[in-house]
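Structure in, sequence out. Go:
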């Protein structure tokens, strides 16, 4: 495949554009668990693209479904109109949660799903006559996309500091990471009491002012922070006690990443709202969604029957191509046994990751399901530099990892094989030994 030599026009997201364009890393095709570069090398995909290609690349059923949809119904408006696959998919998605939720609201990304959920939470309290509940609670080191709502409740400084005033009335709980428990395998057994900080925040602001709490069950983009056992249940209990909605951001953890359909299943805790994206279409077509409990949805259905109940939506909400891709993705997950494979390989992945303990500069390894983080000691006065060098060298040695600061994140496709996991971690270890 021919590629353009002029890279100047595209302002790339979350990228140091100038050094990238001096030495670009270009993919031209993908299949299974590998990418192919412009110079003809195969790269083992250790990140499922960007946490999203859970069933592996170029799955035939998904590709065919997208093509068929484009030929049959390329676009349909969903304001005051509909199309069959959007309703079919909503039913399939509700079923995938074990009917813990009754409704699905479509968006086009995780960022949009988060902002939608936050708006739902605010509007929910208003339609119930509790319009004083306007405060939103996020968490330090949280990542909830790049909309103004998401970066307001998020807690990653570089995503926030450039943009001036964010949403008012936002507070943050502490993150769950404890460096004293480095190299914990799986879910930490201690530390659930961190959740009690929410009680302090409630006491500070009063529950009557708080609309919702939003957390990632497993914080991904900040470097894979696994919650202590019992932590999420404590948040659930506190929110229930004070009439606060609990939102789980499962954009990364949803659709099998932990070996269960969703992280809520893995931890046994149900939120009131749940955001998803990425794996909903295997990354093939942009799509996101908000799952909604019946009690929340039904609160909006009390006014005149001809009135719009929720003034919100997107031109591409429930896009036919996205719905076709999502339906085929759900079928593919079943056909290839993606969730079961992830669950069966979680222990293999854990062992391979923790074998990196003792490699140069490794100060922590964290894991749960098929997601892991390898944290490196930062260079003095150069935070993130060592992690970026490791990321680039890993690519040169044929593996793709994700870099966030000085943490390397791994989240391979759920269809990866044992030997490929071992290859991924072996090569990463060899790379780390070359880093100064």
């Amino acid at each position: 495949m021919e590629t353009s030599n002029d890279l100047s026009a595209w302002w790339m997201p979350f990228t140091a554009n100038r050094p990238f364009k001096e030495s670009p890393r270009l993919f031209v095709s993908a299949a299974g668990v590998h990418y192919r570069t412009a110079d003809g090398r195969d790269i083992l995909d250790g990140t499922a693209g960007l946490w999203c290609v859970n069933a592996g690349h170029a799955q035939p059923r998904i590709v065919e479904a997208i093509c068929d949809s484009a030929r049959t119904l390329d676009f349909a408006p969903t304001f005051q109109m509909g199309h069959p696959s959007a309703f079919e998919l909503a039913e399939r998605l509700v079923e995938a949660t074990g009917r813990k939720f009754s409704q699905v609201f479509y968006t086009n990304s995780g960022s949009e799903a988060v902002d939608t959920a936050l708006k739902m939470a605010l509007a929910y309290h208003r339609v119930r006559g509790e319009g004083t509940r306007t405060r939103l609670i996020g968490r330090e080191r949280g990542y909830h996309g790049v909309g103004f709502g998401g970066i307001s409740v998020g807690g990653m400084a570089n995503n926030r500091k450039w943009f001036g005033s964010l949403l008012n009335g936002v507070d943050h709980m502490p993150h769950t990471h404890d460096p004293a428990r480095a190299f914990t395998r799986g879910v930490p057994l201690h530390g659930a009491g961190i959740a009690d900080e929410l009680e302090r925040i409630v006491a500070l602001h009063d529950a009557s002012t708080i609309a919702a709490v939003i957390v990632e069950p497993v914080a991904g983009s900040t470097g894979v922070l696994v919650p202590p056992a019992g932590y999420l249940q404590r948040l659930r209990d506190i929110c229930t006690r004070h009439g606060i909605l609990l939102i789980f951001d499962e954009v990364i953890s949803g659709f099998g990443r932990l070996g269960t359909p969703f992280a809520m299943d893995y931890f046994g805790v149900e939120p009131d709202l749940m955001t998803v994206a990425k794996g909903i279409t295997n990354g093939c077509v942009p799509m996101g969604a908000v799952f909604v409990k019946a009690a929340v949805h039904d609160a909006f259905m009390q006014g005149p029957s001809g009135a719009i109940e929720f003034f919100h939506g997107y031109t591409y909400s429930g896009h036919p191509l996205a719905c076709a891709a999502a339906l085929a993705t759900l079928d593919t997950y079943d056909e290839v046994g993606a969730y079961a494979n992830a669950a069966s390989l979680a222990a293999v992945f854990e062992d391979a990751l923790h074998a990196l303990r003792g490699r140069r500069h490794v100060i922590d390894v964290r894991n749960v399901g098929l997601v892991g983080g390898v944290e490196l000691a930062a260079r003095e006065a150069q935070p993130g530099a060592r992690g970026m060098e490791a990321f680039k060298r890993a690519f040169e040695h044929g593996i793709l990892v994700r870099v966030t600061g000085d943490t390397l994140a791994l989240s391979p496709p759920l269809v990866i094989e044992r030997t490929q996991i071992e290859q991924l971690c072996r090569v990463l270890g060899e790379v780390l030994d070359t880093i100064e």
